[in-house]
Design brief:
- The structure holds 2 protein chains of 2 kinds.
- By secondary structure, chain A is an alpha/beta fold.
- Chain A is built from 16 helices and 10 strands.
- Chain A has helices spanning 17-20, 27-38, 62-69, 73-78, 84-95, 107-118, 123-142, 152-164, 179-190, 203-213, 223-227, 283-345, 347-350, 355-385, 389-400, 402-406; strands at 5-11, 43-48, 52-58, 80-83, 171-175, 194-199, 216-218, 232-235, 257-261, 278-282.
- In chain A, strands 7-6-5-8-9-10 form a 6-stranded parallel sheet. In chain A, strands 2-3-1-4 form a 4-stranded antiparallel sheet.
- In chain A, α7 (123-142) packs across α12 (283-345).
- The longest helix of chain A has 63 residues, at 283-345.
- In chain A, 43% of the residues are buried.
- By secondary structure, chain B is mainly α.
- Helix content of chain B is 79%, strand content 0%.
- Chain B has helices at residues 2-25, 29-55, 64-83, 89-108, 122-158, 171-203, 209-229, 236-255, 257-261.
- The longest helix of chain B is centred in the middle third of the chain and has 37 residues, at 122-158.
- Classes of the chains: A alpha/beta, B mainly alpha.
- The A-B interface holds A 142-144, 148-149, 155, 158-159, 161-165, 253-256, 273, 276-277, 279, 281, 285, 288-289, 291-293, 296 and B 27-28, 152, 156-157, 159, 161-165, 167, 169-173, 232-238.
């Protein structure tokens, strides 16, 4: 079988960021590059993300691709080169998030789809990219690879959901105005929670962050009073002592309070966790949850690998069948021409037949041709699946003179 | 026919119980199989009850074992209201082994055949037995929800690293559903008991131990609602009261039948 699909690429597995950034392209440039490479009858799609730049090519010379990519010898050395089934399997693993830093991360599937849309795919790349998107969706729906959180902020939000369910309308008090507090607040806000107050020692910092969430700002002294009105507390300050102590949390009449302390040293008195309905997670707790959930993702990755591998086999079979399909089609067309030609030649002798008898003759001759060709067609398809398809196709074309037909 | 229907229903409930356990080890296919087991089992048991009703010339579930059969059907039916959703599969782990066990007891006691019926009027029995059993089914569901609440609450409190591996419904959802279930079940019990006492007053009869424990059960769930909605006793305390009430339900269903059904 001739090599049809080729992959040239590099990723975080083989190249440090200093190399990756040299060939990193935004979507528009990646699309333009693909169209340039595919111009004279080829196919090309360029997938470029922060972790990888990959060119999927059909009918395009490697040298031309390397030139277009601007790859020097240093880059050329680390590039991986895969063909046909290997390239397809790689793409399926990428789409399923199996090649990502965090197994199952969701962004890559959208990037694969966007690269396909922006690129210049033909029949082969169209097929392999559509299959990749299918694998990506299947891996996420049939395994739990993408279910668990992969960062401290998303773990905090997922835990809050375990307490409250839907976070829509839940009020959040953010203590501290640094990056970590903002990240956790954003993760909660993305799930529908409302940031009620940002409290910080530096009021102007609190106001700046509060402005981004359209919430109120206050100094740290307002924290004990503010706790009574909120459902979730996120704290990340550089205070040396506790910002919120057990005594500050009044009886909440059964209303739960979820507290996230991502500060070191800790901002929130651990004794708060002993109060009924209060759930306090510090940075160690959250990191342990993330580590466990990543381990879970890695376990699920084994199942997703099987899915990707099965799809790669399917693609392989399809690719192989492409070798024999034209030969089968030519053979059938050839046989049909002979049948209709012979019927035309016998026209003078068949002239006396009624319309009904003529249709019967048409039907019988068509059945004879179909029966004769049935077994060779089946055998050809079987041969295609065992990689002998090209040889069989060539033999068929030679034996029946199909090359002449094609010309 | 009724006997023929018992086994597929029992096997389906058993399969659901085992599958739900498997789902805790590896969520996914086992959970789906469990849900299908519940569905199939309940449909078959519905057929069994229909056959019993068709063959009987009176109320067919008036015996202790017969009422247990009906009770299981009500419990599983109530579970099915939410049970098909993946997050409620852990609730199925609490419900289905109990359902399978009680269903087996119903058969051992002869409650899945077509023989037994009562001399009492059908209207009285439908109202009294139907309402009391529906209430008990609700309390059983509320207890399962409360048990699940306490388990998940403890995991969240302890900061267990694997707390997100198995995700039941949120604490607030479990707590709210348990409360709503009791809100529906308690009036049903009130009506069912009232019908029973009315008849006791009309025809005369002995006040037995089962009646006493049923009244105590009513009081416990009354306190539950009062504490929950008036005193703000949510969460753990409310869950403990619901479980206490369920202990009484089980006592009424299993330990004291002879005093009443005889």
């Amino acid at each position: 079988m001739s090599s049809t699909l080729r992959l040239l690429g590099l990723s975080h597995h083989v190249a440090p960021v200093e190399l990756r950034e040299r060939v990193a392209l935004d979507l528009e440039d990646a699309g333009a590059l693909a169209h340039r490479l595919a111009a004279p009858g080829g196919e090309a799609v360029c997938l470029s993300t922060c972790n990888r730049t990959e060119l999927y090519l059909v009918g395009v010379e490697e040298e031309a691709a390397l030139d277009a990519l601007g790859a020097d010898s240093e880059l050329a050395e680390v590039l991986y080169r895969l063909g046909d089934e290997g390239a397809a399997l790689h793409l399926f693993r990428v789409a399923a998030g199996l090649d990502s830093m965090v197994p199952g991360e969701g962004e890559i599937l959208g990037q694969v789809r966007a690269a396909h849309d922006a690129g210049a795919p033909g029949p082969v790349l169209d097929r392999v990219f559509r299959q990749a998107v299918h694998v990506g969706k299947k891996a996420r729906s049939e395994t739990a690879i993408a279910e668990s959180p992969s960062s401290v902020s998303s773990a905090a939000a997922a835990l809050a959901q375990q307490v409250f369910g839907n976070l829509a309308g839940r009020k959040v008090l953010v203590i501290g105005a640094g990056k970590a507090a903002e990240l956790a607040a954003r993760s909660l806000a993305a799930r529908g929670a409302s940031i009620a107050t940002v409290a910080s020692r530096n009021l102007s910092s609190a106001e700046a962050l509060a402005g981004r969430f359209d919430s109120g700002a206050a100094g740290l002294e307002a924290v004990p009073a503010a706790v009574g009105d909120v459902d979730i507390v996120v704290s990340s300050t550089r205070a040396s002592g506790f910002v919120l102590e057990r005594g500050h949390v009044a009886d909440r009449r059964g209303r739960p309070l979820f507290l996230i302390d991502i500060a070191v040293p800790r901002d929130l008195d651990p004794l708060i966790n002993e109060l009924e309905g209060c759930y306090l997670y510090d940075i160690d707790d959250l990191e342990a949850v993330v580590e466990e959930s990543l381990a879970g993702r890695r376990r699920e990755a084994a199942r997703a690998e099987t899915l990707a591998s099965e799809e790669a086999d399917r693609f392989h079979a399809w690719l192989l069948s492409r070798d024999v399909v034209p030969a089968i089609a030519s053979l059938r067309a050839h046989a049909e021409r002979i049948r209709t030609g012979e019927l035309e030649r016998a026209e003078s002798r068949l002239g006396r037949l009624s319309e009904h008898e003529r249709r019967a003759v048409e039907s019988i001759t068509a059945q004879i041709v179909n029966k004769l060709l049935h077994l060779p067609t089946v055998r050809m398809k079987e041969a295609a699946a065992t990689a002998d398809g090209a040889m069989y196709a060539s033999a068929l074309e030679h034996l029946f003179g199909l090359e002449d037909d094609r010309r | 026919m009724a006997e023929l229907l018992f086994w597929p229903a029992f096997l389906a409930y058993g399969e659901a119980a085992v599958a739900y356990f498997g789902n805790t080890r590896r969520p996914g296919l086992a959970g789906r199989l469990g849900t299908w087991g519940v569905r199939v089992g309940w449909v078959v048991q519905t057929g069994l009850l229909a056959v019993q009703a068709g063959r009987s010339d009176g109320f067919p579930w008036a015996t202790w074992a017969g009422s247990l059969n009906l009770f299981v059907w009500l419990v599983v039916g109530a579970y099915l209201i939410w049970g098909c959703r993946p997050r409620y599969r852990l609730l199925g782990l609490a419900i289905m082994p109990l359902a399978a066990l009680l269903f087996a007891l119903a058969r051992i006691g002869g409650g899945t055949g077509t023989e037994g019926h009562s001399g009492y009027s059908d209207v009285f029995l439908v109202l009294h037995v139907g309402l009391v059993l529906a209430a008990f089914a609700g309390f059983t569901l509320a207890a399962a929800l409360s048990g699940l609440y306490l388990w998940q609450e403890r995991r969240l409190k302890s900061g267990a690293a694997g707390v997100l591996r198995l995700r039941p419904p949120s604490l607030m959802t479990l707590e709210t559903l348990a409360g709503r279930t009791v809100v529906v079940a308690l009036p049903a019990l009130t009506l069912g008991v009232a019908v029973g006492f009315l008849r006791l007053g009309e025809r005369g009869g002995r006040f037995d131990a089962l009646m006493a424990v049923t009244l105590l059960t009513w009081a416990v769930y009354g306190v539950y609602l009062l504490a929950r909605y008036e005193l703000g006793w949510r969460g753990r305390r409310a869950a403990y009261i619901a479980l206490l009430g369920f202990l009484l339900v089980i006592t009424v269903r299993l330990a004291l039948p002879a005093t009443h059904f005889a």
